Structure formats: C-alpha cells, structure tokens
Amino acid sequence: MFECTKKSQKDKIIYTVDSLAPRLKHLALTIHANPELSFEEFESAAALIAPLREAGFQIEERLGDLPTAFRAVYDSGKPGPTLGLLAEYDALVGLGHACGHNLIGTASIAAALALKTGFPEFSGRLEVIGTPAEEEGGGKIILAEKGIFDHHDAVMMFHPRDKTMVVRGGLACVDAVFKFYGKAAHAASAPQNGISALDAVIHTFVGINALRQLFTDDVRVHGIITDGGSATNIVPAYAEAKFLLRANTVKGLATVRAKVFAAAQGAADMSGARLEIEEGLTYAERNNNLTLADFFKQNLDILGVEVVPPPRSGGIGSSDIGNVSQITAAIHPYLRIGDVMPHTPEFAEAAASDAGLEAMLNAAKALAMTAVDLIESPEMLRAVRDEFLSWKAQN
C-alpha cells in the first residue's frame, strides 16, 4: 500500500490555503450571491479566472469555443505529470447554487494557487479547466469531444454533499424534449375537428409509467410537462414534455431510450399528433479511479476529516465528469457540508454556510496534497495510470 509523501511539503500546502482563506471565502460567497445558469456564467468565470491570472497562470478563455469555459495553465518547464483540476460554476433554475458549484469552482482554484505558490519544487504541468453547464448542457462532454482532456494523466474535483465519501457512482443519463404538434379546434363546439397535442403528452406519461415494471432497478425516468396548451376551451395544437432518462451504463441507457422514445411515438400515433424529439448530450457513467481516490482519502485523514463508505445502493445522480472519466483517471469525491441534499433550498443555504466554506477549504487542501503525491512519487502516479489503462483495456 502506498503512503502519502512529503509531509513537510503538505504542511506548506495547508498553510498556503489557510493564508488565502479570507479571499477564497469571499470568492465562493460572491459566486453564490450571483448565480448564473448554464452557458451564462460570465461573471462567475471571470471571478474564478482573476486570482489565477494574478498568480501568473496562462489564461485561455472561450475554451473549446464555449464562451464561459476556460483553461488556466502553470507549466513548470520540468518533466512531470499533467494534472487537471476541474471547476464548475453554473447554478440551478429557481434554486441558485443548490448544488454547491460555488464551492466546487473555488476549491479547484484554491488548490491550484496552493500548488503554484506553496510548492516551489513543482514539476510538470497543472491545468485548471473551467467547465460550464454541468447542470444543463454537458460542458465537460463538449470539451471532452474536442480533446481537452486527452493529454491529462489525471483530473480531480470535489463535490459538496451530506456525507464525506471519496468514491460514489454516477448514472449514465440523457435528456429529451418531446414536441407534439396537433390541430387546434374549439373544445366545446367542434372538438371533433381537433387533434390534441396534450393528449399525446398525457399518453406518453401513461406509456412510460407502464414501462416501469419492465425496467431494471437502476433505471430512472422522470419528466415534466413544459407546455400543455394556452386555454381550456381550445384543443391544444402544441404540447411539450421534457424527460431525463438514467441507467447504470450508456449501454443500458440505450435500451431505456429506445423504449421511452417508442412510447412517445406510440402516443403520437394514437392521438394523431406529429412528434419531434430534441435529444441532449449523453452523460456517461462514472469510472472512479480507486487508487487515486485512496490517495485523496489518505490526505483527508491527515486533515482529520472523517470519511464514510458510500451506501450500497441508491442515492446516485449523474454528472458530465463521467465522460471525462472515460478518457483519463478521474475522481469526484464528496465532502459533507450538512444534513442536506443537493438540489434543494436547504442545500443552497448550506453552500454559503460556515460548514460549506470549511469543507471547501479542506477539499482544496486534499486536492493539492494529492497532486503533490502524484508529482513527487512516480510509483503513485504509475499505479493510478495502470488502473485506468487496465479499465480501458477491458472497456
């Protein structure tokens, strides 16, 4: 078993993060107070870039032609690994930072600053990748498809949660908008002349509910009606529903997708409506690098942060980090910020709390300390890469 390296160097990392704490907390709270939705995170991205530019990182904005994506690079000029720290900063509609992305982005920036200013022996290349639109749009998927992560030896980030866990799964998922086109008619005097697009939406929900008994336990299908018509006395000529489909793997998701899409088409045929489907990007399942996760845990142990095992089943969401984890070694550990669950008003409040800010600082320290391990110990880096390459060969 490998042991974490360079305790004195890690002491410098801890000291550096602590010395930056007031500024880091202000940054996280500023982003929290000004939530921006996916692909609209202009102020948040600028706020995260500012301290990196000030510290001498080379900044590339509009990364991958995404207006709010960025890359900040510190290249030591000495041989070593290329490590990525991923920043998220988009918010949720109506809830603000109820997923704690203000903490995620700031933690990665803090870890990068600690490595550059508190680790003069640094060798290799460090990149902070600003990844927009995790909630809606799959920013990491777009960047991955453009090769942004192809040269990384490992990438890391953290996520706030109600428990501290270094390993947690992630479901493959895809969203789809079902658009039904019917024919308007007076609902009282001449309903026989109409084709109800709303009926097609309702039958879609009924059809999907009938499928649930045939789905495996990992499958989740949830949807909302986004347009159900404009007046009760008019047969709706247009109606729309949005669904999110999830399964353990992309392969399993393809089966679910085919059945759900067939249910929607059947609903359209039954109602006489015409169906159009707008399909989003596919979020892949998460490939956790267990070796790298264990190194991160050892560093949390140094910080006195208690880690609990993940639950055996349930409680799994989806994230575009899954797509990155198919390309290189990746971890997405969680740190506790309170007895709250993501995507709730209570979580948004916790993301600006003292507990949330303290978890962010601990995450930044552990991320930077784990980077020290990979830079200072070729054996540890090799173990991480060997695990990833072994997984890749089997998949």
UniProtKB/TrEMBL annotation:
A Pfam family this chain is assigned to: Peptidase_M20
Protein keywords: Hydrolase
Sequence ranges assigned to domain Peptidase M20 dimerisation in this UniProt record: 177-264
Hydrolase among keywords: yes
Residue ranges that the Swiss-Prot or TrEMBL entry lists as coiled coil: none
NCBIfam families listed in its UniProt record: amidohydrolases
Family membership noted in the UniProt record: Belongs to the peptidase M20A family.
Protein name in UniProt: Peptidase M20 domain-containing protein 2
Source species: Rouxiella silvae
